[in-house]
Amino acid sequence: xxxxxxxxxxxxxxxxxxxxxxxxxxxxxxxxxxxxxxxxxxxxxxxxxxxxxxxxxxxxxxxxxxxxxxxxxxxxxxxxxxxxxxxxxxxxxxxxxxxxxxxxxxxxxxxxxxxxxxxxxxxxxxxxxxxxxxxxxxxxxxxxxxxxxxxxxxxxxxxxxxxxxxxxxxxxxxxxxxxxxxxxxxxxxxxxxxxxxxxxxxxxxxxxxxxxxxxxxxxxxxxxxxxxxxxxxxxxxxxxxxxxxxxxxxxxxxxxxxxxxxxxxxxxxxxxxxxxxxxx
Length: 280
Ligand code: ADP
Ligand code: MG
Prior knowledge:
binds adenosine-5'-diphosphate, 4-stranded antiparallel sheet, 10 strands, binds magnesium ion
């Protein structure tokens, strides 16, 4: 990977002919991803959607340097994924909130700032701001086990945003939230992206969520996991009425058809070891 200084023109993420094969010992090799080409521009919002097992989480984990590609290249702001991790170029909010149970809510949110040796006063200011944003100002002294799953997820999102990263990697972050909270978090997330100019790769099972949030929706299919279609969404600035726009519905339909265009017949007939299609 090049060690040249990153330039402002570098894509947030650039994946070229990426393949990821898991060698699962006796059960053989699983091609989680193959032939993945994807570039995400700075400030762009891209969602990944597709049936369970199509490699969405694997794709994010490659960008986050939590897995290594078997072939192809993954660059983050023009650097190797590894260097980007060392430089803390991105924030992560994954499915399970992953909070430290012995720390208070506030201390969880402040963790990345502590690691960066941000002074206490500034940390406090920032965690106040973030906790207010996710509606948890009154819970700063609570421990994670005292919160509902949805509240824990909001803490994780606040933590991912603590350092105002240029890139956010989110794996079904709103899956555990009730519908009202979920829509509020979606709007908040877009407002944050607007403010900070951060790029997002966002995994979701929800077609309307993907459409509402994204500049482009990346549709994937499994066995082997690959990108089958990329649906551009041009809805302009989102507001209260966006979800009722005709343009919104036609984008939802376009994504649904892209998903249907590549039905995973094998999943319906395969053994119980294969995770079925669970698009909701
Ligand atoms: P998704 O997030 O789209 O549901 P994943 O990225 O989790 O899909 O998984 C893609 C495929 O790779 C699946 O078949 C899964 O079983 C397999 N897989 C994921 N992680 C591992 C691993 N650590 N070892 C072996 N196989 C894995
Ligand atoms: Mg997943």
